[in-house]
Design goal:
- By secondary structure, the protein is mainly beta.
- Helix content is 12%, strand content 39%.
- The strands form 2 sheets. It has a 7-stranded antiparallel β-sheet. A 3-stranded antiparallel β-sheet has the order 6-7-8, with no helix packed on it.
- The radius of gyration is 16 Å and the shape is globular.
- The structure holds flavin mononucleotide.
- Flavin mononucleotide binds next to strand 2, strand 4 and helix 2.
């Protein structure tokens, strides 16, 4: 029997995998950014590593590669509109990105003051994966900034999708 591997089925199966939705902060010198991301997971216990799949064409890829760090900002489930704004390079004004206040983390990367919780990661290794790089970061600092019991945003809270097979323009 032929396998069912049409692009449509690959997409549908991959979109079944539950994902967080968060903001990845990055910085190289005076260039700062944050982007909406869903390909985020823990990757090891010792060292404590967090992996993020980052599109090679994204500004974030450049900033993490050169800046050597990134932050994972977990966000309120009640405020998923924010993710639409951070799906293109962010505008920095003072210590804010797209109007959202930030501070400088221990690694130098931006942490959002409004994030429910954050992970501040030093780049441990970048693995070339074709369209994307898997950015593995060692957790240097992390914490909660509001109720630790609060739920954090997930893909299923929105009508957004990311991933599956490559489409034109990707
Ligand atoms: C719901 C959603 C999830 C996304 N997840 C990722 C992701 O995990 N990795 C990635 O590289 N881009 C992801 N993107 C796309 C980036 O947010 C988008 O390409 C952004 O423009 C790239 O960021 P930058 O150029 O500002 O760095 C996602 C976009 C959306 C809308």
């Amino acid at each position: 029997m032929e396998p069912d591997r049409t692009d449509e089925i690959v997409n549908k199966v991959l979109w079944k995998i539950p994902n967080v939705l968060c903001l990845i902060g990055s910085r190289d010198g005076d260039r700062w950014n944050a982007m909406t991301a869903s390909w985020v997971t823990q990757a090891a216990m010792e060292p404590v590593l967090v992996a993020v799949g980052v599109d090679k064409k994204a500004l974030t890829h450049d900033l993490i590669s050169n800046g050597g760090a990134f932050t994972v900002n977990l966000w309120s489930r009640e405020d998923t509109r924010t993710f639409v704004k951070f799906s293109k390079p962010a505008v920095k004004e003072g210590m804010s990105l797209n109007g959202r206040p930030i501070r400088t983390g221990a690694t130098g990367a931006p942490i959002f003051e409004e994030a429910v919780a954050y992970l501040d990661c030093r780049l441990w290794k970048a693995v070339d994966c074709g369209t994307h790089s898997l950015m593995l970061g060692e957790v240097v600092d992390c914490g909660f900034q509001s109720d630790p019991e609060a739920g954090v945003a997930r893909m299923e809270d929105t009508r957004m999708k990311y991933g599956g097979v490559r489409r034109g323009g990707h």
